[in-house]
Design a protein that fits this description.
By secondary structure, the chain is mainly α. The protein has helices at about 5-10, 15-25, 45-60, 75-85, 95-105, and strands spanning about 35, 65-70, 90. The chain has a 3-stranded parallel β-sheet.
Length: about 140
């Protein structure tokens, strides 16, 4: 067993350099995180994100700053996030409209939804309701 110890220690040698490098880097996050909401303050996406902000701050042990950047159906703020430095300190609350619908509505979208973002987590869903005046007497979509 004593003869096998040096061999066992050598088997861990390839891990030593990456572990030493990781120890030299500051732990993430070591500064505030900006979470872009690509819609005006007070809207549905803003309310959901602001509800989650205290839990994110506690879990990450770092300040999470919400930055509203509304305009053009969410494409202004989403484009701003796409151009942000890819260092993990800027995130964006994307929605179906900013990544799926906008790609079919705008010719010159300032970002590529499938390429400019990495999925980090799922927040929730929001149902849509179609309403009409009672005089229409519609009970189904067709």
């Amino acid at each position: 067993m004593i003869r096998a110890l040096p061999l066992a220690l050598l088997s861990f040698a390839p891990l030593a350099l990456p572990l030493a490098a990781a120890a030299a880097e500051p732990a993430w996050p070591d500064k505030p995180i900006t979470l872009i909401v690509p819609f005006p303050a007070g809207g549905g996406t803003d309310l959901v994100v602001r509800t989650l902000q205290p839990a994110l701050t506690r879990q990450l042990r770092q300040t999470v700053i919400i930055q509203n950047a509304g305009g053009a159906g969410g494409t202004v703020g989403t484009g701003q996030a796409a151009r942000a430095r890819p260092d993990g300190y800027t995130a964006v609350a994307v929605t179906t409209s900013t990544v799926a619908l906008s790609a079919s509505l705008y010719r010159n979208l300032p970002y590529k939804p499938a390429h400019d973002f990495d999925y980090v987590g799922f927040i929730g869903t929001s149902p849509y309701v179609l309403a009409a005046q009672p005089a229409l007497k519609a009970t189904t979509l067709p």
